[in-house]
Design brief:
Elements: H1 2-29, H2 45-63, H3 69-93, H4 97-116, H5 119-122
Helix pairs in contact: 1-2, 1-4, 2-3, 3-4
Length: 124
C-alpha cells in the first residue's frame, strides 16, 4: 500500500510540474514563448492561453487529493484528451517523432498517476 502511494505521488508530482508549473512559468517569465508549441501546428494565439489555463487547473485538481473524485476524474480525462490531440496534431502537421513521443511519455506518466491513486478516491 505504501509502495502504491509513493508511485502515485512521484507520477503526480511529475504531472504537476510538467503540465501545471512549466506552462504557468512560461506565461509569467517568458510570455514570448507561450504559443511556441501551438503556432507551428496552426492554432491561433488565444488557444495557447486557454490550453495553459486548462493544464494548470487540471494538474492542480489531480494533485489536490481532497477534491471530489468526479472532479479529479474529469481532470485526468481533460489532460488525457490534451495529450491525445497533441499526438494527433503532430502526426498530421509535422510528423516529428520527438514531438509525437513527448506527449505519449507524459500520457504514460499520467496513466501511472491515475492507476495508483488511492482507491478510496476513485469512486466517490
Amino acid at each position: 500500500m505504501k509502495r502504491n502511494k509513493i508511485i502515485f505521488w512521484i507520477a503526480t508530482i511529475i504531472i504537476l510540474l510538467w503540465e501545471g508549473l512549466m506552462p504557468l512559468s512560461t506565461v509569467l517569465f517568458m510570455p514570448e514563448y507561450v504559443n511556441a508549441g501551438t503556432k507551428p501546428l496552426g492554432y491561433p494565439d488565444y488557444f495557447a492561453y486557454t490550453l495553459i489555463i486548462c493544464k494548470v487547473l487540471g494538474a492542480a485538481a489531480i494533485a489536490i487529493t481532497k477534491l471530489p473524485a468526479k472532479l479529479r476524474e474529469w481532470a485526468y480525462a481533460g489532460l488525457s484528451f490534451n495529450l491525445l490531440f497533441a499526438v494527433i496534431s503532430h502526426i498530421i502537421v509535422d510528423g516529428n517523432i520527438g514531438f509525437i513521443l513527448m506527449p505519449v511519455a507524459v500520457g504514460a506518466i499520467l496513466f501511472v498517476s491515475y492507476y495508483y491513486q488511492p482507491k478510496k478516491q476513485l469512486h466517490g
